[in-house]
Amino acid sequence: MPQQIIGHEKIISFLEKTLENGQISQAFLFVGPHGVGKTTVVEWLIKKILGPQGFDHPDVSVVARLTDEKTGKTKSEIVVDQIRDLRERLSMSGFMGGRKIAFIEEADFLNVEAANSLLKTLEEPTSGTILILRTLSAERMLPTIASRCQILRFTHVPCTKIAAALSARGVIKREAEAIAALSSGRPGYAFRLLRDESTRSLEETTVEQFVEILNSPLSARFAKAADWLPKDEVNKARQLKDLLDRWEWLLRDVFLISSGAEDLAARAVAYPELKNLARKKTNQHWISVLETLREIKSDLNFHVNPGLALERLFLKL
């Protein structure tokens, strides 16, 4: 098992066998949550095929959302011109005379024209080219694109495995266990928590807000809703999605505690105050809240008003 990769043994074993047999697919769809290790495996695979340069190899093309020169913000889509440029590069001979690899970092953000252009590449693949798409969910992709890719699903890694990996890298055992618990099974996010103080602070702030909301009357909850969302409409939905992602893990642990499965509630290791909250309501209540939260996350894809969506959740809590 490669040292830099934590978990995903079955995926690594599968890729190693296909490389040994010379049967590597021409297109992959790497599916899984943020921080679970998809990009780390992509880099490992590139090095196995092209050598130690990894992403810096001249025959590797990476496609990601561009930055708006005026605002400095990341654009909302990968556009068709980017895919056309990629197709042109892939049609040329490799610099090193061997394989070429293209990595689309956030295939979720391909707009319709870009997705259709990419589909042409998948339908008429260039010899010696491997295309790797990274996405949070296969359902976010055009079915015609997903059907032409080898789909590899990355699941959460057990916290014990992440803690052991952190300890092996010199992290004190108690700190390793706390960070692993906060990572929610995502090794990449565990390393962010370890190295980035602002990320760790955001986790702590999220728990403080969560506890405050659950202990506040409805009027105070509504007042908070306006404070937690940015003023510009472009970022409201994205910020709310990020907040709901973090709350979903907390609510999952609260539900597990209320159901008598405290040993499975990873964040309870770092935040014991969740235990008191969990026991204030029944496990059926927490199931209902989780269902509402997931409905809201789905509705945000259809341009539901973020402020009203957050208020709906506060009513349910």
Order of helices and strands: HEHEHEHEHEHHHHHHHHH
Largest sheet: 5 strands, parallel
Beta-sheet strand percentage? 5-15%
Tell me the count of domains. 3
Q: Which CATH architecture of the largest domain is right?
A: 3-Layer(aba) Sandwich
Q: Would you count the extended β strands for me?
A: 5
Summarize the structure in words.
There is one protein chain. This protein has 14 helices and five strands. With 317 residues, the protein is of the alpha/beta class. The mean pLDDT is 88. It has helices at residues 9-21, 38-50, 80-91, 112-123, 143-146, 159-168, 173-183, 187-195, 197-214, 218-228, 233-258, 273-278, 283-299, 306-316; strands at residues 27-31, 60-63, 100-104, 129-135, 150-153. The chain has three domains: 9-153, Rossmann fold (3-Layer(aba) Sandwich), CATH 3.40.50.300; 159-195; 197-316, Zinc Finger, Delta Prime, domain 3 (Up-down Bundle), CATH 1.20.272. The protein is globular, with a radius of gyration of 22 Å. Strands 2-3-4-1-5 form a five-stranded parallel β-sheet, with helices on both faces.
